[in-house]
Each structure stands twice: as structure tokens, then as C-alpha cells.
Amino acid sequence: MTRHLLGLVAQLLATLVVATVLIFLVLRVLPGDAAVVALGLNATPEALAQWRALHGTDRPLLVQYGEWVGGMLRGDLGTSFVTGRELTPLVADRLQVTLILVGLGMLLALLAAVPLGTLAAVKHRSPWGTVIAGASQVGVAIPNFLVGVLLVSYFAVRLGWLPAGGWTPPAVDPAQFWRHVILPVVALGTVQAAIVTRYVRSAVLEVMREDFLRTARAAGHTRGSALVRHGLRNAGVPVVTVVGVQLAAMLVGAVVVERVFVVPGLGSLLVDSVAQRDLQAVQSIVAVLVLVVVVVNFLVDFLYTVLDPRLRVAAR
Amino acid sequence: MSTPTGPVGPAVPGRPAASDGTGHAPALAVDGLTVRAGDRTLVDDVSLTVGAGERVGLIGESGSGKSMTALAVMGLLPDGVTATGAVDVAGERDLLARGERRLAPLRGSLMSMVFQEPMTALDPLVRVGAQVAEVVRLHDGGCSRQRAAERAVALLGEVGLPDPEHAARAYPHQLSGGQRQRVLVAMAMANDPALLVADEPTTALDVTVQAQVLDLMGELVARRGTGLLFITHDLAVVSRVCERVLVMKDGAVVEAGPVAEVFAAPRHPYTRGLLAASDLTATDERGRLFTVETADGYRPGGAARLRGADVSLRQVEPPGGPAGPGTDDALIRLHQVTKRYVRSRGSVLHAVTGGRAGQRARTVDALCGVSFAVAPGERFGLVGESGSGKTTALRLLAGLDTPTSGTVEVAGVRLAGPGPDGWPGGGPAGRAGRVQTAGPRDLARVRADLQMVFQDPMGSLDPRMSVGEIVAEPLLNPANRRGLEEAATAEGRRELVREVLAAVGLPVDAGRRYPHQLSGGQRQRVSIARALVCRPRVLVADEPVSALDVSVRAQVLNLLSDLADERGLTLVLVSHDLGVVRHLCDRVAVMRAGEIVEQGSTEELWEAPQHDYTRRLQAATPTLARTAR
Description:
The structure holds two protein chains of two kinds. Chain A is an all-alpha fold.
């Protein structure tokens, strides 16, 4: 078990090294000199050289990479080429917002998808099962910004119950925070709920055919209690996989919902930084996103071994 | 000698079933049970009784409705299948009328069931001790977790698991098939049920394990006075376990009575047919097994004499004779063959981080120095239990895999062996030198000469190809058309396919059908036709009948005999069933754990086995002859 855990951590670290090298190289190779972007096409060569010296882009690549990674290890993401501001507090602030949105969105999705998907599987022969399966099909097809726009036009514009956009950090005013967070979370969560419902349904359908559920019934369980006691945990393994993949997708996908609700998330910051050719900001934000995705994958891998003893042995 | 005397064991021969005279309600009383799926009738008006403590066998082939009967009794019928009639268990009346909520509490306490497939019947995520304890607590809410866990350990000990405390902490995948079936028996017996239903509980197990599990079940039910309804397709197993037997065909019971009586003097033609087809020691005057259709000439217990005649008849034929070929004229030769599989650690990163990947890699020695030779025209059998290495040996023969060391020669082609400058044949076991393998051209020659028939006829036929296409496919490879010039044209191939389909006894229009439209026996005939279409000299069959019903098994074995005779084929047959090999083969090699423990002529080996393992295997193989004696 410990060996397996160490292996997973090593895998995590190796992924991070490869990812940072790739991010760094890709951004250097891309056309568009950061100095020219910052100073404009008419800048004098002297001015450009001065800018490069100031930001250190004239030094060897290896030195630049080492400085960047070394800084990140100390928690310093560098300074923005465009605004000259420290990136670490800015990214931390934005990341917190995105993590709250994505975390609450997935929580909402799971709270809806697990019972609905299970119900759809158990009742797969009855109209209810068909209704849920059909609804989740439709849900998958709807983009989340459309859900966002519909929510805004109804609950914010027509009914005026909730603000149409904006953001209040939870530490500043909890009540305002919740008022602002509800609509974007629902917009993110409903689409995810639809996707995860479909996976839960098929996982539960699969597990309902298993011999051990029949054994459980032969031992005195009813259909329902056999499924709860022995079926759901077995169905959990494939669902955990999907939730992991979807979390990673939501992290970046949240940018659309962030735009609709004018929420200052990490995705918006990334898009803005790309538009401004803020090389330093882009590479640091992407590195942070990679870190989050890799950690999520690590947790998913670890959760497998918690759920399934067979994988523990294979991993040992 | 052939006079039936009662079944072995503490049986009470001829005891009437319904009322056992002691005033106890019977363990199971089924009256007029009919099971339907839509407008199809799966079980038609079946009535049966299992007295308290009585052991009753229910036999029949696939589709006879025997499993549906059991599931109906337990209230576990699949969705869309309905049952009518009356089912009483130990005085509890009319179970069919109860809903799931009122029936579930009776399952696992009053009646319980053991299923066929132990590998998948336990929850893979829960320790087996906890699964047994769960059954205890499910029916005794007052039982503490602690007490239930202790009871589980006691039960696991009772079903003969060594070190039950340790076993209780194991997950199902850490146990063997036989051990898992013991756990399932422990679960079924946990609450002292009045009725135990066992549906083919040992079919998926090796013969020696099967014998142990059967003995265990017999002993447990006898000790606790549990009524047993034992469902199987295997008549020999019934004769080992049961006192009374019911024979089902097409959803109805056609014959019932004490085992000794039914097996010695069957009244219904179908029972007689099943018995004849199951008896691998009995043959007709042509040396062929009886089938349900030809069963008229069959007389239970009269087998030995006919068999003797058969042997003397056959000894004339094969040129090599049962003494085994010299190494010169052998068609197939394996010399000191070893095969070591290395299980890799999987991830590249483990190799990087662990640094000891090579050292940690686990090796499995599937074959450790196996040698045998098969003469042209000979029928050679490989017998062994799962994991003995018999399938690995076949894969090497067919050139599907290469040995770690040793020499493999088939039909004059050296598939693998030491190179010209290499070490002398044999060499020390392990990796003492590089094995040189045959090139693609030589492999193609071997495959034209050696064809295989596999165990699972459904899995080994492409479901999207018609039978005609499947059988013609080997002919599309020019290497397989040596001496068959007509196969170069589509019309010529069609003609060859028609011919071979007729030879394996399939109807003329079979070529246009698809595998799912055929029965299991017909599918295996298609596999055989596909193997024979390019006129090979060697036919290798890997468990060709173990997935088939008894009556079909006899037909397919006869077909193999006929084809081997007509076409002068050399047969290599792999089977776990000593009986099948004994019937078909001249010479046998017994394999265990990658080694041949004994080989010799079939009769010698059967009459006077030298190795202890062969004797154990023989003793564990259930035979009808033993009951009839």
C-alpha cells in the first residue's frame, strides 16, 4: 500500500516536471516577442533591450526555466509582464473563486446524479426510468452558458431574486456570497449532473446483472437492500473515474460560466492574460491548472485502491 | 456384480418422499409449478418433494428448465419471468404468492442456495468473513457484530477452510475457486436452513476440488438434517450425492425415483439415452459412444466387456501402437520444453522509481521440462487440472507462442529449438541459451498441417460471419491450399465447404446460417469443420466437449473418432476429464504444475496408475460405473 502510494506520488511529480517543461518551451517557441507586445511595434531597439533585461527574457532558457520553477516551489509565480503586479496573490484569489464554483458545482451534480442515475437503472423498464434517461440525454446536449443565460433571465431579471452577476468573497459577507454563488453553481452543476447521471445509470445497470447481487438476495436481502449494500460501492469505481475527468474539464470549462456571471475566476484571468500576451501570467496560470488536475487524478487513483481491494493487490 | 445395491453413503433407499412418517413437513413441496416467460413455457406443471434431510437430484440438459425450477422456489426468477403453482418450504405455505418483502427474510434462513459460478458470486469489495457475518446478522438482528464475526470464523472452519481466522480477512480474489465455493456453502448453511438448493455447484471446479466440495456438502446436510435439491447436468455427480433423482426434459419431469433404481433400470427412453451418453466406458459394437438416439443397445453395467472388444479392435490400427512412437517417426515432438511467463510491473514509472523492477518482476513457470512425442495416426491425450500447463503446451504446438527453452517439432518443422551453434538439445531448465524459432514460412506450413478446435464454440466463432464464410476462411490463405488447387476459386471453396460441412454432419443449408442460430453442439461441429477444411494431418482439440451437454458430448466425441479414422488424422486432445481422454485416446500424459507426472498407454494408466496424483485424479472423477457396481 505504501509502495503504491509512493508510486503515485512519483508519478505526480514526474507529470509536473514534464508539464512545466512543455508549458515553458511552447510559450517560448510561439511567435510574438513579449517585449514587442509590451512596448509596441515602434519601440526602439534600446527600449526593447532594456525591457528584456528588466524582465530577464534575454538570459539563457535554462536559467529562465530554473528561476520560474524555483520561484513556484517557494510559492512565487513571478510578476506580470503587462501590469507589473505580483502574480501569486492574484492567482490565489482567482483560483479560490474557481475552486468554489467547480467544487460546489460537482457536489450539486453528484447529489442529483447518484440518486437519479440509480433510480433510472432500477426502474429502467418503467416510464420513470425512460424519463430520467431522456432528461439526462437532453441535459448533456445543452451547453452550460445557455443554462446560465436562462437562469439569469428568469431568476435575476424577471423575478429579481438573485443578482445577475458579480462576486462577493465568502470571508467578506457570507450572505452576499451565497446569493452570488447560487446561479453560477446551478448552471455548472446541472450539465454535469446530466453527464454523471448517465454514467451512474449504466454502472448500476451493469452491477445489477452481477452474480453477487443474486447471492445477496439468496442470503436474505431484498432487491433494494442488496443493491444498497453490495451494488452501489461496486458501481462507484467507474463513476469515480468519470467524476475525476469531469472535474478537470470543469476547471477550464468554468470560464464560460464565469464570463456569463461576471465572476472573477481563474479561467477569466487566463483568457485575459492570453489576450494581452502576458507570457509570465499565462505560463504560471497554466502550471497551476496542471497542478490542480494532477492532484485530482492522484486522488482518483488513490480512491480506486480504497474502493477496490483487487487494485490494492495489483498495486502492491 | 452388476446388481444395483443402493447408493453409497448414509442413504435410506426407497424412502417415500412426501410424508417421511416422522410428522415433519417436507423440506420442499412443489405442486404444479409452471414458469413462463412471455408466451413461452419454461417449466410445465412440475411437482416434486424433498423430505426433511433428503437429498434429491434434479438432472437435465441446458434448457430443460431445471435452473428455472430452482429460481422459482427461491423467488429469484429474472424480470419478465413468472411462476404459478404452489411452493411450500418446511411448512411455510405458498411462497409464490408472497412479495419480495415477505419472501426475502425466508431466503438465507429457511432456504438457501449455492450457485454455479463461485468466481463471481461473492462481492469482490467485501472480506469473505464479513459476507458470512452479514448473513448471520441479516436474520438475527440481536446478534452483535462481534458475535457474528466469531460465528463467521466458526462457519468458515466448518466448511474446511484452513486457518479460518485468516481466511475470514481475505477478499474473494485472494481465494481459489474451490475455496470461494466453500465460503458460499458457509453462507448458505449459516442459519441452518431446512432446504439447500444447489445449482450446478461444482461444474466450474476442477475434478479433485469438485469431489471435496461434494463430500463437504453431503456431510453438512446430513449432519444438520437439511433437505437438498441438487441441480446438475452430470449424472455421475448425482449418483455420488443424491438418494432420489428427477429427470427433466423440455420443462417437464419425465422420470423420478431412487438413484439406484433409475440408473440401473431407466424406464423413460430419455433417461436411458442420457445414461448411455454419460457413460464414457460404454460403447457400441463399432467402438462409438452411445447417444440418446442409439441408446437402445445400451445396458447399464455391461460396459466393461464391450470396452475390451473396442480396445482390441483399435490396437490394430495406429501404426505407432499404444507403446508410443520412437523419436524418429514422431509427427509431434516436444523435448525438455520450458515456458516461463514474466509478469511485468506494469508502469514504466515503477521501473524508474522502484529501481528494482527487474528484481521484483514475478515469474510463473507454466512448463518445467515437458517431453512427449506423438506418432502419425495416434490419439494422444493431455490430462490435468486448471493451471497444469496443458493449454500452454498446446499453444507451443500450434506455434502461437515460443518456449523459453527446449525443442518443439511439428510435422517435420522445427518450431523452436537450439540454434545450429547452440547448446545440445535439452539443456538445463531455465534460460541456458537462446531458442531459435521458426520463420513465418515454416509457421505457415505447420498451420496448414495442424489445426485447432477450441473449448468455447460460441466465443471462437465470429458472430458476424456466416458458417460458410467461417469454414472457408482458412482457405483464403494460399499457404493452407497446398494440394487443394480448387480452393483458389470461390466456386471451388464453396464445394470444399459443402463437403466438409457434410462430413461433420451439419445440414446442407447450415452454410448460410450464423453462429447464434445454431445449437452448442452444431457450433462445435462448425469449429471442427473449419479446422478440417484445409486437410490437416493433426487435429488439436482443447477441451472440445466441456462446454457441451451430455448427449451432445457423445455425438461430438463420436464425430472426432469417425473423422480421425476416415481421414487418418493424428489427434491431440486436452481435457480435464479423465473419462473423455480414456474413451478417445491411445496414449495419455497426466500433467500437474507444468510437469508430466506420468504417461503411457491409456489402459495401462487407467488400470495401474503409477503416480499418486493420477490415482487421486482417477478417484475424484465421478463415474456412473461406480454406482452401478
